[in-house]
Amino acid sequence: VQLQASGGGLVQAGGSLSLSCAASGRTYSRYHMGWFRQAPGKERELVAAINWSDRSAYYADSVKGRFTISRDNAKNTAYLQMNSLKPEDTAVYYCAAQENWSVRPSLLESDFGFWGQGTLVTVSS
Question: Taking residues 102-115, what's their average pLDDT?
């Protein structure tokens, strides 16, 4: 599956952005999806993940209550709605896909086998 992320940009603290991840190729609907981010000088971290079937979701503690991951299998697209953005949310955001070998997605970065290019999100204070 090929992934194309979009929607990054510059926003003031407290603002919102919505990221999209368009998939093409193999059966997108059977992949767990995730959003990762990498801030300057830091390791890449998982922000949110969504199950391929029941759409149950996982969130990093740092974004709970502010970010929402969703997917539209008919459009082969995953989304990350980001509200109440903080300067510490500044990072390059990546979408990734994981084959559904298990009912729930693994939260390990190494288990996501397909990656989109990053999209930069900058939150100004």
Answer: 92
